[in-house]
Structure formats: C-alpha cells, structure tokens
Task: inverse folding
C-alpha cells in the first residue's frame, strides 16, 4: 500500500534577488515500511522536499497524499494534529524547545499526541541510555553539544512510534561512533515498528542502508 503519493509537486522561493525555482514536477510513491534516501548536491532541494512532504511548508502546485489524507487540503490546526499523530522529525535545525530539558523535549510529542504512559517514559529512558545520554536528561538544549541535540531529536522522533519519520541529514553533526549508533537504532526500530523512513543525506553509507535511493533529478518528470 502507498503510504505517500506525490504528484506534480513544484516549489520556488521568492527572494529580493528574484524567484528561485527549486523543485519542478516531482512524482514519488512510497510503500508503508519502506526506507527512502534522497541524495543530491547541496542546494538541490532535499530539505525543501522534506518540508513539503511533512507539511512544514506549502508547495506552489501539486498533490500530497499521506495515508489517504490530502495534507495540502488540511487547515493549520488539522495539519498540526496530523503531524503530531503521524510524523517524527529529525531535522538539520533540531527544533528542540529551549525552555524544556532534554527529557521533557522528548516527552512533548507523546503529550501532544495523548500517547503518554509510564511504559513510554521507560522506553524513552532506555533510548537515553542507549545513546549514553543518561547524564544529560535534565540538561537544557543550550547546555548540550550539537551531536547530543541531534541524538535527542532522534529519541523525540521515535517516541510516538510514528507512521513516518522524516530525517534531514540525521548523521550530519555526529562523530563516527554516534553515526553508527544512530543508524543502527534508526533502522532497527523503524523495521520493528514498520515505520516508513524518508531521509536526506550526503552520507553514501547511510543512503545504501535504505531500500531505495533517489536523487531529486530522478523524481522530476
Ligand atoms: N527561504 C528561502 N528563500 C530563498 N531561497 C531559498 C530559501 N530556502 C531555500 N532556498 C534555496 O533553495 C535551494 C534549495 O535549498 P535546500 O535547503 O532545499 O537544499 P538542500 O538540497 O537541502 O541543500 P543542503 O544539502 O545544503 O542541505 C537552495 O538554492 C537555497 O538557497
Ligand atoms: Mg538540506
């Protein structure tokens, strides 16, 4: 079954220097449980595509069907709820909230999606332990390194056991050992939970672990 079906998606940005065309006529179909790597040179539009697919930005043209919902037709409140219930995010800009500590940041999506239980808290504590972050539970984002923030945003993305995880360069600011841990965990848990994974990366080893690799050019018709 297609969990994602994208047709005719186009996006350009307006800037003081004029219109910047980025994506033209993107087509993409993804099955439930599949992992997809989007690759391409810097500036080609990978982050833009992930923003559109996950409803964080709006396309100029096209249809986005996710789990049989036309997310481009939802209003802002419906879209926020749909995201909270269905998506997990690991993005270049980590979006951790500065006034919550690490643990509360990871628990927030569970609270929003009303999936908060004692068992889910225990699962999250296990993930902190897995990443060697058990001493950072009560640190605030500005008391954490870039790599620590990235691992915490992965824990947050996995917390609600989402239908789809969007990950933009998830290993971007990690050292070799933490990249390995993150990859291992990402693929182990997404396989176990039949989560669909859409990631962008310059890391060819990470891309090769996915079921399919597409460049933006492959997706434009
Ligand atoms: N708000 C904006 N206004 C104008 N241009 C933008 C804006 N956001 C992105 N762009 C341009 O759109 C293009 C695509 O950007 P995007 O961030 O999607 O690339 P990317 O493939 O993710 O690159 P990277 O690998 O460096 O992360 C770039 O040329 C960028 O300069
Ligand atoms: Mg990018």
Result:
């Amino acid at each position: 079954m297609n969990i994602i079906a994208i047709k005719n998606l186009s996006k350009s940005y307006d800037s003081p220097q004029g219109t910047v065309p980025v994506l033209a006529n993107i087509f993409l179909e993804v099955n439930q449980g599949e992992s997809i790597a989007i690759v391409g040179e810097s500036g080609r539009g990978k982050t833009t595509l992930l923003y559109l697919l996950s409803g964080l930005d709006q396309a100029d043209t096209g249809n986005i069907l996710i789990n049989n919902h036309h997310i481009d037709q939802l209003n802002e409140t419906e879209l926020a709820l749909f995201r909270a219930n269905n998506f997990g995010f690991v993005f270049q800009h980590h979006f951790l909230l500065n006034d919550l500590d690490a643990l509360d940041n990871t628990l927030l999506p569970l609270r929003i999606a009303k999936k908060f239980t004692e068992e889910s808290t225990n699962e999250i504590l296990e993930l902190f332990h897995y990443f060697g972050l058990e001493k950072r539970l009560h640190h605030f984002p500005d008391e954490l390194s870039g790599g620590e923030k990235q691992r915490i945003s992965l824990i947050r993305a996995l917390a609600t056991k989402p239908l789809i995880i969007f990950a933009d360069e998830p290993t971007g600011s990690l050292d070799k050992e933490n990249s390995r841990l993150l990859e291992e965990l990402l693929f182990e848990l997404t396989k176990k939970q039949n989560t669909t994974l859409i990631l962008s990366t310059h890391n060819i080893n990470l891309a090769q672990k996915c079921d399919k690799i597409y460049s933006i050019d492959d997706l434009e018709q």
Notes: The two ends are 23 Å apart (CA to CA).
